[in-house]
Every structure is written in C-alpha cells, then in structure tokens.
Amino acid sequence: xxxxxxxxxxxxxxxxxxxxxxxxxxxxxxxxxxxxxxxxxxxxxxxxxxxxxxxxxxxxxxxxxxxxxxxxxxxxxxxxxxxxxxxxxxxxxxxxxxxxxxxxxxxxxxxxxxxxxxxxxxxxxxx
Length: 127
What we know:
By secondary structure, the protein is mainly α. The protein has helices spanning 3-14, 20-30, 37-51, 58-67, 102-108; strands spanning 78-84, 95-100. The chain folds into 2 domains: 3-51; 58-108, no CATH class. Helices cover 43% and strands 10% of the residues. It is elongated and about 60 Å long. The model has no long low-confidence stretch (mean pLDDT 81).
C-alpha cells in the first residue's frame, strides 16, 4: 500500500479508527481510492508492531508512576500519591493516583475552598 491510500489509512489510524472494516467504511465515505483488505491488514499489523500495545498492565502503570514521583520543575506534572489495591474489596483490583504540579499545590495551599473533578476512564496513549 503506497501513496494516498497509505496516508489516508495513517490519518484514520491516528484518529483511533483501527478496525480494518471501519477504516474501509470511512474511506468509502471520504471517497479516496480504498485499499484492498489484505493490504490494509498488513499495514495495520506492521503499524501495531512498531508502536506497541495501547493497553498496559497494572505493573507497567506502577512503574510509570514510580518514574514520575519526583517533580522536575514547578510546572511539570508529577505523581503526588498512589495506591494500588490487591482486590480485597467488593470491586476487585483497584488503583488510585494523584497527579499535580508544584505550582498548583502551592496555589492550592492558599485557598479556602477548592472544587475537584475526576473521570472514571483512563486512556493510555503511550509513547
């Protein structure tokens, strides 16, 4: 697969569309020349081999947290605290981590009231 086909597939892959059938459907919608499914599967397999998995284990995540425990500057994020459970509770294995910057923590110490928000889903876009 070469030229515009490859560029179009690469663009869709980087947008998070990784299923061959979904890519072909999107290419049909956009109207560029579509690649054969076998070409597409070969290209995606090669791309995934180069980039590695998008899913990481808890053990890998613990290592990453440990690597970022020390702040490098007042503006760079670092892991302030972390807790990794062993599945003793009703929800199975759990983990918690708190990321901040030194500047944010300094600002926070002067506040009377603070609001916080969290999300339930962690997306890994590892490099």
